[in-house]
């Protein structure tokens, strides 16, 4: 995530964000089509949609960090953008990031000091001081350091020294510092991309309270279902398929909660499928009427000499009626062909975890962790994973959840204690942040290399319902963060391990896939260990739980 505040002199008095007719393509791939959206002052809209649907692109365009191919954007002069990644210079410290956010406050404080020193009784000096004092009071320059400390503490960052380099703290900590900087900058409009990633319960609660009291427009993309229910005043669904039902915009605002949205979305899909089926039936009937009616008129038997006059008269009336019906049917047929609802596209739906040798026989533990310590990051007495263990690891940031998973995966050495594994144990870890060694390779290439040609042919990547057909041969480096995580998940479940470790599995995944994945893991025939802050997942969890605390 990255903060960026953009200013426009032409929008100095604007108090909302407005997008009109926004379209954006990358090469031959259309991402956004004719998006119209207004984020009113004091509205908090949650941006939702499938991975790769254009949520991050829309946020960047709304902030001015990317240009649309078509359409216009209006936004407040002070608009803040939070990115998923945090680009930074090599020598940047945490303090550099925070002080950039407080630059306006520091300037106002300096101007007040300079104006006070220049007071000499003249009208100009007095007016300068009065203006500087008013601006300082508006920005609350005297309370800015206390506010900084409160925000850092609220996001769980108060124990980290501000003189540390940004590249010396973890990715999750950098993300939280970027969020802290944006909150301290207090722009008039907030555009947030996955703001709850890397936040524990207390930090999510702090952010929730900050946004609930925010004076300005808020548009945020989030996978956090509980957070959407609590914070959003409305939901914005970006769905590429919506253009198929004749709507001018791909952005549809829903005024209820996320829970209510799920029901409404299902009903909408059912209505669309029913309308498509009804129109297809009508098209068949109209085509039949046109074909049969035309044959009746053109192939009718001619009259005999005895009844040719009366029959000719009756036949003309009948032919006229049939011709009118054919003409009406043909007109309706042409109209329906031109304006018919297109076939609902197949929903990218997770096909579940393939069958395979997920489990080892009962009788011996798969893995045992005893009296383990890792460099102040983890201290744990004992964890035992049986062949069908379902374990949820919880705890605040810094408690060692990710560290424990890496110890179990065998890619992190312990400083003290022991880790024993059953012979022949296969372990796979779905990490929080996916990095591919070959970003230029396609998802299909990585899949075939990881599984081998025979297994990849037996279980094609497309059959898993994780990667859309149009994305199979695109370089993985060009995919969205969520799409890349889908690829990483596919590489694991195509050859299911005996022990499946997942670090924040719902991060970056679409809301639909997160739900489907949870259900699949609940019936996984091997062992599953999940580390998660996701309150929605935790509320529905039926397995064992392990609560960790900071070492």
Automatic annotation (TrEMBL):
Q: What GO MF terms are annotated?
A: ATP binding; ATP hydrolysis activity
Q: Tell me the ranges covered by the ABC transporter domain, including all copies.
A: 17-274, 336-550
Please list the coiled coil stretches. Answer: 98-125, 262-289
Q: Which UniProt keywords apply?
A: ATP-binding, Coiled coil, Nucleotide-binding, Repeat
Q: Does the record carry Hydrolase as a key word? A: no
Q: Does the keyword ATP-binding apply?
A: yes
PANTHER family membership: ATP-BINDING CASSETTE SUB-FAMILY F MEMBER 1, ATP-BINDING TRANSPORT PROTEIN-RELATED
Which named protein is this?
Macrolide transport system ATP-binding/permease protein
Source organism: Paramicrobacterium agarici
